Amino acid sequence: MAPASFGGSRLPSHVAIIMDGNGRWAEMRGRDRAFGHLRGARIAKQTIETCAGLGLDQLTLYAFSTENWKRPRAEVSFLMLLLGRHMRKERLNLVRNNIRFSVIGDVSRLPAPVLEEVEKTMAATSACTGMSLTFALSYGGRQEIANAAKALALDVAAGRMSADDITEEALSSKLQTSHMPDPDLIIRTSGEFRLSNFMLWQAAYSELYVTETMWPDFEKAELLKAFEHFAKRERRFGCTKAQLEAGTTADEVTP
Ligand code: IPE
Ligand code: IPE
Ligand code: MG
After folding, report:
1. Is pTM, for the whole model, over 0.90?
2. Which of 35, 99, 202, 225 could join 26 via S-S bond, C-beta 3.0 to 4.6 A?
3. Which of 22, 32, 57, 68 is catalytic?
4. Residue from 17, 18, 20, 79 whose mutation best tests the ligand 1 pocket (most atoms within 8 A of CB)
5. Beta strand pairing call for 132-139 and 100-104
6. For residue range 145-164, what is the model confidence (pLDDT) as tens digits?
């Protein structure tokens, strides 16, 4: 399938977004943080529909980190409530838009009724063949890598593989993202230049785009701006520009 494009520009096939700034957006307006999260959920819905409409392959949204469990109980409860509600309300829309939904992260920590809504949405969309939408929920990149290392160690201990078989591919295959390509583009809103434990392994060669815009203000035009920036980037993957132009980047040379 030819890569999707808009206005003639090349689109990333996997976009991952660190949706940040809900709390500050609300506080700047003299409102409580929950107000920002509510508006943030609306922007998430809008973003999902825009990306699906543009024909993107994969969209991953960082919705709740492992570290976010440390937030005040009331905020965590509200975010969980919102997630459960979003799952229930959007299920049919996702199916209508042919979007397949899945999650990464330690979802066993989610409250049981919320997890149930998440699982129902995954089941309802399992036959969809359009964009793959992944929510990173209770997700931490370090935890994911540590779990992958543990799974490899168990395979070695059980004699299913030897330590010499531990390659980048073997480790990747034990990550929760094993079924998806690495993100081409990682967007972070709210002006913070950090990954906050998001896709640490998978981000090795992702293009990063940081905008000062807070997530609740990240309207469609902002998303398209990020895609325009991406289209202008030159991804060299360690090679030289000349090699890329000549299309001779396949072999590794030893001096
Ligand atoms: C992002 O907004 C949403 C989550 C992390 C769940 P924040 O809640 O982090 O908002 P700020 O960064 O405090 O403004
Ligand atoms: C990252 O945002 C996590 C999500 C967007 C879900 P945070 O607000 O938790 O990140 P820090 O604390 O500013 O690094
Ligand atoms: Mg934040």
Report:
1. yes
2. 35
3. 68
4. 20
5. parallel
6. 999 999 999 999 999 999 99
Which phi and psi angles does 6 have, rounded to 5°?
A: -135, 140
CB 145 within 8 A of CB 174: no
Contact 53, 220 (CB under 8 A): no
Residue linked to tokens 């890329």: 244
Of the two residues 192 and 243, the one the predictor is more confident about is 192
Nearest residue CA, atom 12 of ligand 2?
196
Decide whether any atom of ligand 1 lies within 6 Å of the 60 Cβ: no
Q: What is the pLDDT of residues 37-57, one digit of tens each?
A: 999 999 999 999 999 999 999
Q: Which of 111, 120, 40 is nearest to 77 (CA)?
A: 111
The binding-site residues of ligand 2, defined as CB within 6 angstroms of any ligand atom, are 18-20, 62-65, 68, 192, 194, 196
Could you tell me the residue range of the domain that residue 223 belongs to? 5-252
Q: Does the pLDDT value for residue 127 go beyond 80? A: yes
Query: Which pLDDT value is given to residue 43?
Result: 98
Question: How many structural domains comprise the chain?
Answer: 1
Model confidence at 76, in pLDDT bands (50, 70, 90)?
very high
Give the CA radius of gyration of the chain.
Answer: 19
Q: What average pLDDT does the structure give for the chain? A: 95
Q: Give me the CATH number covering residue 56.
A: 3.40.1180.10
